[in-house]
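Batch queue: ligand-bound targets. Current item pairs a single chain with flavin-adenine dinucleotide. No template structures supplied; prediction is de novo from sequence plus SMILES. Inputs echoed for audit trail.
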Amino acid sequence: MILLMLEGDIVIIGGGFAGLEAARLLSKKRARLNNRRVIVVDAKKTFDFLPVLPEVAGGYVQKKNAVLDLAYYLESLRVNFEQDEVVRVDIGTKEVFLKSGGVLYYEFLVIACGSVTNFFGMDDVQRRSLKLDTAEDAVILRNVVITYPNKKIIIVGGGYTGIEIASNLAYLLRRKKIKKYSINVIERADDILSSLPEWARDHCRVNLSKLRVNAYTECSIEEVSDQRVKLSNGMMFEDYILVWAAGVVTPAFVRDLKFEKDKQGRLSVDEHMMFSGHCFAVGDAAAVKNGNSILRMAAPFSVAQARVAVANILRGVKGVKRLVKYHPIDFGFLVPMADRDACGKVLIFRVSGFLGWFLYYVMCISRSLSLDNKLGIFGDAFIPLKNRAL
Ligand SMILES: Cc1cc2nc3c(=O)[nH]c(=O)nc-3n(C[C@H](O)[C@H](O)[C@H](O)COP(=O)(O)OP(=O)(O)OC[C@H]3O[C@@H](n4cnc5c(N)ncnc54)[C@H](O)[C@@H]3O)c2cc1C
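Prediction returned. Tokens below.
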């Protein structure tokens, strides 16, 4: 089935932070698009606010406040929405192939499809694991943990996601008055959060030990079966819940593109956020050089990159040759932990404890896309838990 045969469309793959910012700006500049249509394609019905997923898993933030209906939001922008999964992109013929069998033709393409949990091809692990890619995953994780509070929880990956999940699940079980729980973070490197400075790691370790989370470093998963998980250090866990947070990778259609990528499958882009003529990659799907390294995945970078891509699309439409360059500006990082704790760096200042936690929620509220979500997250964060159903 051929869905659309129009030339001149601007197709955005992904309705996440980057894709929706691009859609919003293009909608605002509609008059300058010379009747070109903007189409957002997303496999999901909702935009999921990923930074609060660990808190959704921990029952601290309600799912409804972390999601936004894409059809409703994009209709308000007068942008077309196609709910479908992109399975292939042909840059030569400018076609985007959808799982439903449909094809979209583009003049400008923005790949903003983010990343998904990387199981490194281990199907046996994937089958037995929970993950945290969507708000729905967060609810499933929470329900499993509440239903089986005495099972041993094994979280593979001691990066941001793994540590935030561990902290939030421990806090959830504590609030549920479960006295004997077992939460274990497994990290291959010699420390958790190895990309962070020592003082930030120390702070997170204190939070984890207060919440009785065990962290095992320099070890990995050796064997997973229905009965048990065996670690490379010889430890064995029976009757377990396995949560996989050991890395991310771009969706298969991006990895299949014959362009330069990094080891996570992110497309190498130039300073204009382009990887080919009229084709942009932004957000987690883009590998942006920042000095000698690749810029880390974070919502503010995704939004800023989308702005540059849109500026360059508008120049492309107008036939202007001089394009806008992306210069990453890093305002810092925050690692939110349960129990009103966080640590990180904002500009040049170290922040931790309640102040860090407060700033983190200010960031979440300001980046949420609807008033409902903003008010909802505000209520979840600042109204004491005892006033709400867990
Ligand atoms: C648990 C967690 C916690 C995080 N915490 C923070 C934080 O505290 N601060 C911070 O700055 N960043 C945080 N991040 C990272 C941040 O959320 C990402 O950098 C950001 O979401 C990337 O935006 P994006 O638009 O590139 O992709 P996303 O927001 O992931 O959106 C991608 C969209 O593309 C869609 N898509 C994917 N594949 C296809 C396909 N084949 N066809 C159609 N649609 C597709 C997806 O459904 C999704 O809606 C966190 C991420 C996670 C997972």
